[in-house]
Every structure is written in structure tokens, then in C-alpha cells.
Design brief:
The protein is of the alpha+beta class and 152 residues long. The protein has one domain (9-144). The termini are far apart. A three-stranded mixed beta sheet has the order 2-1-3, with no helix packed on it. 24% of the residues lie in helices and 7% in strands.
Amino acid sequence: MNNAGGPKLTIQDAGAEAKVVERVHRIQCAACPWKKSTVPERDIPGGYSERRHRGLVGTISGGGCESLLGGRPMMACHESPVGEEQACAGWVAYELCEGNNIGLRLRALRNPDAFDLVLDGPQHARIEDTFPKRSKTHKRTRASAGHSGGAE
């Protein structure tokens, strides 16, 4: 897919330098964390990191004018090769709708073909819902052992 002149997004990678990305992964991958059926720690290939996943909270738009100012980081698809990152289809769908990312909506208006997304099943309504599920017992056990809950 060639999106020359298409949307330019900034990739967010917790602990890494921001990069400009010009492509959107239009077809949602099998293990996308935005899919309700995905269990991140089981399904995401290549060494899932809960710390890095939680670091992606900074990619979520607050909507309104702040998303027009630019520099808003984006969530890259975990199947994108390093150096050739593409925006995650599930993240783009969220940001265009519930996330109310006005800047991204304007980019989609200018280049609608780049945002012709194919999603796979029900999607999460908030990024917090994409994180691994922890039972109350697990949280209590980790807290009593002196863990803060920020495990990888």
C-alpha cells in the first residue's frame, strides 16, 4: 500500500524516540489488543510487555482541540516491521470514533482510502480494557508481596 502524501502520524513506543509514520495497517491483525477476543499476554507474538502496553495510554486522544495541535503519538501495529511501522487498525478505529481524535479525522477526510479499515469482531471501548485482566486475588497477592502492579 502506498500512501504517498497520506496521513503522517507519530509512533509512540514507550521508552523510544518518536518517529513519523505514513501508513495505516488497514486490516486488523489476528492478535490486535483492541479486539475483545485477544488475550495480550497469550496472543501477542514476540515477547509481550505489559509495561510497554500500558505506556501506550499516551497515544489516546482526549478529543477536541488538543488533537489538532499535532505531535499526538500513535499506536503502531505490533506486526509492523521495525523501521516500517504502520498505525494499528484497532487504534485508528478507536481514535476516529470513541477517541474523537479531530486531527486524525481531518487526515481521514483528506485521504479516505488510507483509512478504509477492516476490523475483526467486537472491539474494546477504552484502552484500559485492552490490558491483561487481573483477578482481585492476583492483585491482593502482588500487593502483599510488595509489588506495585506494574509488572511486565
